[in-house]
Design goal:
Length: 220
């Protein structure tokens, strides 16, 4: 199957209200162009410099999403054009995004990445620490960022019950903090190539699919 066929197959299976982010990290501008010509407009990347060079090469009606861990000193590369940052996991990072967005006279949409996986290595907020910051009002002082929802990466396992439990915990956490953020807190980013049908069943509104569209890649 071609990239276009694979993307169309996934798209036709998606219920209303679920957005597909095509994760194109490591793949060439030509591969992205093929998906673009097939109608896909939202692409996810995980490295800021790679993201910036693809932005420069490709049509400007693409919505670029940053899905990987973001270092504060790299925010400047993507601030002028990024549509959504999925991976906000500290107040310090949010401060830098707010400042860089301000310089570009933009408001940048962000998601709070919450740690739900059983592995230690996964990134994201510890939920209790996040809840403390939320209750303390730490998110209300930013003028150039808008917190649009939550994101998680589930445990990397074949065991469906574990993955389902991760997704359900994200939903429960989301529901607990949602009242602090208002009506535009409406994005739940969960589900990747191996687990997106389950994520949708659990309430995902945005899935991030890479290898199932573009094939194997050289780094995670
Ligand atoms: C790479 C990546 C994906 C896509 O993974 P696939 O298994 O290839 O679909 C999704 N989300 C994040 C955060 C990623 O880094």
């Amino acid at each position: 199957m071609s990239i276009t066929e694979r993307i169309n197959k996934i798209r036709t299976e998606l219920p209303d209200g679920v957005t597909l982010v095509a994760v194109s990290k490591t793949h060439s501008a030509e591969a992205i162009r093929e998906a673009y010509d097939g109608g896909q407009r939202i692409f996810g990347e995980s490295r800021p410099q790679e993201l910036k060079s693809k932005y420069e090469l490709l049509p400007h009606d693409i919505e670029w999403h940053m899905i990987g861990h973001l270092q504060t000193n790299k925010v400047k590369y993507i601030a002028p054009f990024i549509s959504l940052i999925h991976s906000v996991d500290s107040i310090r990072l949010l401060e830098v995004i707010d400042r860089e967005a301000g310089k570009c006279e933009r408001v940048i949409d962000c998601l709070l990445e919450i740690h739900v996986a059983r592995e230690e290595s996964k990134t994201g907020w510890d939920y209790n620490e996040l809840l403390e910051e939320v209750q303390r009002g730490s998110f209300s002082r930013f003028e150039n960022v808008r917190i649009r929802g939550v994101m998680c990466i589930a445990t990397n396992t074949e065991d469906e019950n574990t993955v389902r439990d991760d997704f359900e915990r994200l939903i429960a956490y989301r529901n607990e903090v949602a009242p602090y953020f208002g009506k535009t807190f409406d994005v739940i980013s969960m589900g990747m190539s191996d687990d997106y049908p389950l994520a949708i069943e659990c309430g995902s509104t945005m899935i991030r699919v890479g290898s199932k569209i573009f094939g194997h890649r050289s780094y995670k």
